[in-house]
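Methods, example record. To illustrate the input and output format used throughout this study, we show the complete record for LUD domain-containing protein. The sequence lines were provided to the predictor; the line carrying structure tokens was produced by it.
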Amino acid sequence: MSSRERILARVRAAVAGAPDPEIPRGYRGPGALPADGVVDLFAERVRDYRAVVRVLPESEAAEQVARSLAERRAGRVVVPGGFPRALLTAPDVQWVTDDPPLTAAALDAVDGVVTTCAVAVAETGTIVLDAGPGQGRRALTLVPDYHLCLVRAGQIAPGVPDALARLDPVRPQTWISGPSATSDIELNRVEGVHGPRTLEVLILT
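The corresponding predicted structure is encoded as:
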């Protein structure tokens, strides 16, 4: 008998005849959080992650996209299929499409990516992508160093259960909470290791 088998045998003997404990399952569901103030809360939580956040009317989205890319000096930017073409008015930007699919090296060579999102979570400051129109495949937002994401106010759910209720569970999902960051055992923070170093979110009201 191996050590593992001996340990498991002792555990089984110790709990033999013990009643099954009742485990409460009163999880919080959709509608448990108030829907008021989700835009302000979402903006606050995203800023906590050291992301750039701007709240503006949707009518100013095209102008702000151009301004944000100019501030980054982004000359070559990936735009996924289905992204609103009316927002791509930046005069000095070369829009790079993902058809045929770009290689990792090609994605690494661009200055950034612009996307929409599927849903956002106010409570956690999280953006969720599901490869829908304007979002593209997962690599588009993980390889470039800069991600500019447009979130409409109506897409912001109060909490995670509310967001899950709006998502299709069979679609591939990427949950983004701020720029990519990690810390080693000495708590030295390093950004851009497994995703964009800079995340900018435009909240369109």
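Annotations derived from this record:
The chain has one domain: 35-204.
The mean pLDDT is 93.
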